[in-house]
Design a protein that fits this description.
five-stranded mixed sheet, 330 residues, nine-stranded mixed sheet
């Protein structure tokens, strides 16, 4: 059997995260509620950034992008499909992925600024976010083809794409045509509420893994309570591996008639939970594409999620990776 050139292709929005520490008083300059996320246009984003006084910190973001970046750092051969913009943020984003070892040849390129999300962090650690989807929003179904998944074993898709069902169907069809196995991260309970019937149809047609957190699995099965073992087992009846994350309470992994309760890894010094679910998915997929048992995939996922919450931002810093890789082997 020929070894795949690419083990994992991530698909989603390549968003540059901009992070600024601010006093509460700064929020008087920003419409909307503290702690919320509001979509804004490019002009409004520029206005807020100009008021900061100094440039915010930059880190690559986006759900599937974070998972792909982490998977590359773990040693998987990865690529990413998503649409970059025409500005310096797009150039920086692409270069950081290249340096992490991601094949950047499958990025698309738009004619408007790159997607960006400004996180305004107040002293109480709350994040008030303003997002401009920029070029990522212009990705169209006609730009997707099986060539984007050529030579790849697995495609990992973020649920936010489901808001554009024609685009998501184009991605799923192209990945299937290329012979990939497929995972879908449900991403948000709002995504599930908007597309529950569509999702159940897709589960029976070539999706192999579904990632969900507590809110998302409850949205998938409204009125069924919070027995996460039962919900994971129910989802697994749709011929998928059900990976249900419960944050500090661990997770349930169900496949067929088997179900595994993954104990949490206690982290006494949690700094930031941003990106933990994406890192969790990266750990699981690392095990999956390397043919590890599903319980071992869950253990690897827990390790990655626990490491991420020890650091500020959605990505594990360079200084921590040697320790992460040692624990993967233990």
């Amino acid at each position: 059997m020929t070894e795949p050139q690419i083990e994992l292709v991530g698909v989603g929005s390549p968003i540059m995260d901009l992070v600024a520490q601010i006093p509460d008083s700064f929020l008087a300059n920003v419409s909307g509620d503290k702690g919320g996320m509001v979509l804004v246009d490019d002009a409004e984003m520029g206005r807020i950034i100009a008021l900061l006084g100094e440039a915010p910190a930059q880190t690559t973001g986006g759900s599937a992008a974070n998972a792909t970046f982490n998977a590359a750092r773990l040693g998987l051969r990865t690529a990413f499909v998503g649409k970059l913009g025409n500005d310096h943020l797009a150039t920086t984003y692409r270069e950081r992925f290249r340096k992490a070892g991601v094949d950047v040849s499958r990025f698309k390129h738009g004619q408007v600024p790159n997607a960006r999300c400004l996180a305004l962090v107040t002293p109480d650690a709350q994040r008030t976010m303003r997002t401009n989807l920029g070029a990522a929003m212009t990705l169209s179904p006609s730009e997707i083809s099986p060539e984007d998944f050529r030579g790849a074993r697995h495609a990992h898709i973020e649920g936010y794409l489901v808001f554009n069902q024609h685009l998501c169907e184009a991605v799923l069809n192209a990945a299937r045509a290329a012979g990939c196995t497929i995972s879908l991260d449900l991403s948000s309970f709002e995504v599930v509420n908007a597309a529950r019937d569509w999702m159940f149809h897709q589960f029976g047609h070539g999706i192999d893994i579904v990632f969900a957190n507590e809110d998302e699995i409850r949205a998938l099965y409204p009125g069924r309570g919070n027995d996460y073992e039962a919900l994971a087992r129910e989802l697994a009846t749709h011929d998928v591996i059900a990976a249900v994350k419960m944050g500090r309470d661990g997770s349930w992994i169900a496949r067929g008639k088997e179900a595994h309760r993954m104990a949490p890894i206690h982290v006494p010094d949690v700094v930031d939970t941003n990106g933990a679910g994406d890192a969790w998915a990266a750990g699981f997929l690392y095990g999956y594409v390397r043919d590890r048992p599903v319980a071992e995939c869950g253990a690897l996922a827990s390790l990655m999620g626990a490491e991420t919450v020890r650091h500020l931002g959605p990505l594990i810093p360079d200084s921590a990776w040697d320790g992460v890789k040692r624990r993967l082997v233990d």
